[in-house]
Design goal:
By secondary structure, this protein is an alpha/beta fold. It is about 40% helix and about 15% strand. Strands 1, 2, 3, 4, 5, 6 and 7 form a 7-stranded parallel beta sheet that branches. The longest helix has 17 residues, at about 95-115. The mean pLDDT is about 95.
């Protein structure tokens, strides 16, 4: 079995960026996705340019921060102060599919203009899997022909998606689900079900819990726990013993 452990939220803050670099060095985390509208983007791009981040995708963001498109062009996605709607509101509100597509393209082009080679796409808070966001997300992925994280884990169906995806995606390695035993359980489950498959898990590591992170996300303390687990010799040895190969999206065919 092959495992893609993707570090979400690259670009969120310097502590998150540094934690992701540490995880790449350990060899277990093999992929990351960048949020192009966050405060840590310039730092993230520097780390990429230094060769510390071998591959990067786009973490499409419409539930945190402000859009990169002119606000008047994405009015259905933002509140009266110009910030993206919160997740609960966004997932239940009628939004414009064309505005979603526009903002996704704007964030993608910003990444390209920053010198990043984007090799896949996923979405912050799974925004890309809720209709009509899902329609725009699938259409954009097909148009640029890049692999994506599966889009059937919350709303079923991805028949109209024509690009490569992992064989399975599992979101259980998060928050209270972050432990060595839970991670082993998840991976052994898929090793039985899909012994020749490619499985993707998300992770959210950070080198430390800093004040800047406090202002940006409610998910904080467990990020350091994740980083410590994902860089542990115990996990590295266990994956080798089980014959689970860690790969990135560059190897997804």
């Amino acid at each position: 079995m092959k495992l893609i452990l993707n570090a979400d939220d690259f670009g969120l803050s310097e502590s998150v960026n540094n934690g992701i670099v540490e995880c790449f060095k350990s060899g277990v985390v093999t992929s990351t996705t960048i949020m192009m509208n966050q405060a840590g983007v310039a730092h993230a791009v520097q780390l990429y340019q230094q060769g510390l981040i071998p591959e990067v995708g786009l973490h499409f963001t419409v539930t945190a921060g402000k859009p990169l498109s002119p606000p008047c062009n994405v009015a259905s996605l933002i509140d009266e102060n110009g910030y993206f709607l919160d997740r609960q509101t966004l997932m239940t509100k009628e939004v414009s599919e064309e505005e979603v597509y526009l903002e996704l393209n704007t964030q993608y082009q910003a990444a390209i203009n920053a010198g990043l080679t984007i090799n896949h796409i996923d979405s912050h808070h799974f925004a890309g899997v809720y209709p009509p966001l899902k329609k725009a997300f699938i259409r954009f992925a097909n148009d640029i022909n890049l692999p994506v994280r599966r889009v059937d884990n919350i709303v079923s169906g991805q028949e109209s998606l024509f690009v490569a995806t992992p064989d399975a995606f599992d979101a259980r390695f998060f928050d209270t689900g972050v432990s060595f035993e839970q991670l082993k359980s998840i991976l052994l489950e898929y090793k039985t079900k899909l012994p020749n498959g490619i499985i993707e898990l998300m992770c959210h590591p950070s080198s430390e819990h800093t004040s800047d992170l406090t202002e940006l996300t409610s998910y904080r303390d467990m990020r350091v726990v994740e980083k410590n687990l994902l860089t542990s010799a115990e996990l590295i040895d266990w994956l080798e013993e089980e014959g689970i190969e860690c790969i990135g999206f560059n190897q997804l065919v």
